[in-house]
Amino acid sequence: QVQLVESGGGLVHAGGSLRLSCTASGRTFSDNTAGWYRQTPGNQREMVASISDGDKEDYVDSAKGRFTISIGDAKTTVYLQMNNLKPEDTAVYYCNLKGYGWSGPYEYWGQGTQVTVSS
Q1: What's the mean pLDDT in 90-95?
Q2: Contact 87, 68 (CB under 8 A)
């Protein structure tokens, strides 16, 4: 049973910082793609940041230069450091793990953590 558990969300003023964490059990982020997505009411979930092959990072344009995704040394935790937060970053943030195994592709989601940025 694979579980992803996020933490680190909360309320912050514009210009502030938060660091989200996502800890995996049942699988690791090694040899998989780890991602952070966000969703606001009435909108589709969008990819915010992803990291694959350990070091290939990708970011949505609005996050470039402000957010950084990284994986911990044990490969069981993925982080999203968010700096200079803006009110438009307010959303529920979800952790994602996906990869390909002997039985085919797999993908898992965390339960989400709320990030609220006040102006």
Answers
A1: 98
A2: no
pLDDT at residue 100, as a whole number: 92
Rounded to whole angstroms, the Cα distance separating 53 from 99 reads: 11
Cα–Cα distances (Å) from 27 to 5, 24, 56, 61, 103, in that order, read: 12, 6, 20, 29, 15
Q: What's the CA gap between 15 and 117, in Å, rounded?
A: 9
Give the bridge partners for 56, in sequence order: 52
Given a cut of 80, whether residue 74 has pLDDT beyond it is yes
**In this structure, are residues 57 and 50 in contact, taking their beta carbons and an 8 Å threshold?**
yes
User: CA 36 to CA 49: how far, in whole Å?
Assistant: 5
